[in-house]
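Listing S7. Sequence submitted for prediction.
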Amino acid sequence: MKANQAMRMKELEREKARLKPLQAEAMLDRATLRKVVNPKF
């Protein structure tokens, strides 16, 4: 693996680590909204 590829991979890993909690929060918000809109769900 070339140095620039390794740097890019590290950059993507950092971005993934940053985005993962945001995705989890968005999924929780979505589930909460579904329950508010449709309590039977």
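Caption to Listing S7: primary sequence and predicted structure tokens for the chain studied. Helices lie at 3-37. The chain has one domain: 1-41.
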